[in-house]
Design brief:
Length: 244
C-alpha cells in the first residue's frame, strides 16, 4: 500500500527526517511513536505532499507520489487527520462533512458516505446541526476523523489521536478505529501515548531525531526493555514477571 525508502525531508533550511524507510500493507494498523520533535508530523506531512522529500522514494499503491501535490495524493486515496484537528469551527457538523466529501471523485457518493459515517459516530448524527467549534474535544476529534473518511481514503493517517482527551473518550475513539479497520482500510496512527499505540498497532515504528530507531510488532515493541525504559518510564519487566 505505502512504501517509503531512504527518505529525507524537512523545511527550507531545516533537515528533519533522515533515511526514513517504512511500509504499510493492506489493512494494517501502523503505529508511529516518538517524543516531541522526533519528526512524526513531518513524516505525515511529507507523505501527504504538504512538503516534499529532498531524497528517497515514496510509493503509494505502486505509484511514485514524492513530487505530487496534496490534492493529487488525496485523490489517489490517502487521507490525513491533522494534529490539532483543523475543523471549520464556524460550520456545522454536516457542513464539515460535506466539505470532506466535496471533491469531484467523492461527490457522487457523498450522501451514502455520510450515512455510513453517522452510523459509525452516532453522536455526530445527533448533533449534526451544531457548530464544530462548540463540540467537546472528543467530539471534535471524531468529526475530524469522520471528515477524512468522507474522502473515501484507502489509507488514513491520524496525527495525535488522543491528545488532550479523557481516557474514556480515547477508548471510544480507538473502538471506532477498530471498526474502520475492518472496513478495508489501512491506518497510520501517530501517538504520544506509547502504551496505547503499541497495544493497538499491528506493527509500529519508533522515531527519534528524525530517524526510525526501532520497528516491529506493536506488542513485541511493548515488551522491549529498552523502549519501556526510555519512552514509558516503566521499569523493565523482570524475568519472573515475563514468565521466563
Ligand atoms: N514549519 C517548520 N519549519 C521549520 N522547522 C519545523 C517546522 N515544523 C516542524 N519543524 C521542526 O521539525 C522537527 C520535527 O517536528 P515535528 O512536528 O515533525 O515533530 P513531532 O514528532 O510531530 O513532535 P510532536 O510530538 O511535538 O508533535 C522539530 O525540530 C521542529 O522544530
Ligand atoms: Mg507532531
Amino acid at each position: 500500500m505505502l512504501k517509503i525508502e531512504n527518505m529525507h525531508s524537512g523545511y527550507k533550511d531545516v533537515p528533519v527526517l533522515r533515511e526514513v524507510s517504512l511500509f504499510a500493507g493492506e489493512n494494517e494498523i501502523i503505529g508511529v511513536v516518538g517524543s516531541n520533535g522526533a519528526g512524526k508530523t513531518t513524516l505525515l506531512k511529507t507523505i501527504m505532499g504538504l512538503i516534499h522529500p529532498t531524497a528517497g522514494k515514496i510509493e503509494f499503491r505502486g505509484e511514485d507520489i514524492a513530487s505530487l501535490g496534496t490534492h493529487q495524493i488525496s485523490d489517489l486515496g490517502l487521507g490525513l487527520v491533522f494534529e490539532g484537528r483543523r475543523l471549520f469551527t464556524g460550520m456545522t457538523i454536516v457542513e464539515n462533512l460535506m466539505v470532506g466529501g466535496g471533491t469531484k471523485r467523492t461527490k457522487p457518493y457523498r450522501r451514502d458516505k455520510m450515512a455510513e459515517v453517522f452510523d459509525l459516530f452516532p453522536i455526530l448524527k445527533e448533533r449534526r446541526k451544531q457548530l464544530a467549534g462548540s463540540l467537546s474535544g472528543g467530539e471534535q476529534q471524531m468529526l475530524a476523523i469522520a471528515r477524512s473518511l468522507m474522502g473515501c481514503p484507502k489509507l488514513l493517517m491520524i496525527d495525535e489521536v488522543s491528545l488532550g482527551l479523557a481516557p474514556r473518550v480515547v477508548e471510544s475513539i480507538y473502538e471506532m478505529l477498530n471498526v474502520i479497520k475492518k472496513a478495508d482500510m489501512t491506518l497510520i496512527v501517530v501517538e504520544q501515548n506509547i502504551n496505547l499505540c503499541l497495544n493497538f498497532a499491528d506493527r509500529a515504528y519508533v522515531m527519534e531525531n528524525g530517524r526510525i530507531v526501532a520497528e516491529g510488532g506493536g506488542k513485541e515493541l511493548l515488551q522491549d526493555r529498552g523502549i519501556r525504559d526510555k519512552y514509558m518510564g516503566i521499569k523493565p519487566l523482570s524475568d519472573a514477571e515475563r514468565g521466563a
